[in-house]
Amino acid sequence: MMKGSITKMLMTVLMSFMVILGHGQMTSADFLKANGTVLRNNSGLGDTINLRGTNLGAWLSMEYWMGPVGKGSLDRSKWKAYAYNSWSGTNVQDVFDRDLTTRWANGEAQIPDSSQWFIVDMTENVLFNRVSFEAADFTGDYAHEYVIEVSEDSVEWEIVAADSVTEQDVFVQLSNIYNKRFVKITQTGTANSNFWSIAEFNLYMEDDFRVRNSLTLRFGEDGMDSLLNYFQEAWITEADLDTIKAMGMNMVRVPFYWME
Fold it and tell me: In this predicted structure, what is the pLDDT of residue 229?
């Protein structure tokens, strides 16, 4: 990650240490102490340094705007979907096909009696903290109101979200991380002129491990590396560090990436 920039920053830090320590080598009696903007070694040798710095914001590849498949979407290859009813010509399994022009549809108007449900069986417990169900270009066919429940056995259910929406594509950030096998969405709104359609269903776990897996599944290992490398190289450049130096600053707090 930005090898030239990081090397430059490390050299700057090393030179600062040398100034602080003067001509002696660091021993167990020497350590750096911060007091406000002043940094000196324990024995007080060398010059103090007035720190004038800034913080460069950290990044994670799970940041929403850069994830091309979105927020660490989970592998759906073994998932199975079920619904209370299906309109002729649609298939519940099409919600996993990465094609927004295909869909599952219930084939009837949306009614609020909680009889209209859609269930996904992940075939094993999976970790997730975000759910999406997209109606795509099937205008008005989103669930006008919904309840999301999760379960380990499809018998005991826990409600994790409920809301009304006016958007085609529904993305729900859950308040907790769940380790469950089943997700159930119940349509509880009213739309007399619209089916309930789902073009794509996804679960997400927003950590870098799953984001990388998601990118690899779509673009391959080399493609994933290329995407992340491009993003990282553009995040902080040597020109940025030169600008900070020209502003009279002598310290910068830099982010690091735990998977590098």
Answer: 83
pTM, two decimal places: 0.64
For residue 212, the number of C-alpha atoms closer than 13 Å in the C-beta half-sphere is: 14
Q: How many CA atoms lie within 13 A of 63 on its CB side?
A: 11
Dump pLDDT digits (tens) for 138-183. Answer: 999 999 999 999 999 999 999 999 999 999 999 999 999 899 999 9
Q: Is residue 218 part of a domain?
A: no
Q: Does 174 lie in the same domain as 118?
A: yes
129: CATH: 2.60.120.260
Q: How many helices (H) and strands (E) does the chain have?
A: 3, 13
Q: 36: Cβ–Cβ under 8 A, 6 or more apart, which residues?
A: none
> Cα angle vertex 84, ends 83, 90, to 5°?
55
In this prediction, residue 235 has a pLDDT band, given cuts at 50, 70 and 90, of confident
Does residue 214 sit within a domain? no
Is 220 within a domain?
A: no
Structural domain boundaries enclosing 201: 66-205
Cα 45 → chain centroid: 46
